[in-house]
Specification:
about 60 residues; 5 strands
Length: about 60
């Protein structure tokens, strides 16, 4: 699945809701707020699923 910058995503194995902030060489950079500060990490595209916002849009 292709994710766009500003898409909401989650990891398949759970975790916080994150926002896509970049994409390079098959890696998707995400950021999220953990209650203390903004965190960022890059994930393989296969590790992520669409977040709530995109799922609602697809149902329309």
């Amino acid at each position: 699945m292709v994710f766009l910058v500003s898409d909401a995503v989650k990891r398949k194995n759970g975790g916080p809701s994150m926002v896509v902030t970049g994409y390079s060489s098959g890696m998707v950079e995400c950021r999220w707020y953990d209650g203390y500060g903004v965190q960022r990490e890059a994930f393989r595209e296969e590790e992520l699923i669409p977040g709530e916002k995109r799922m609602r849009e697809e149902r329309r």
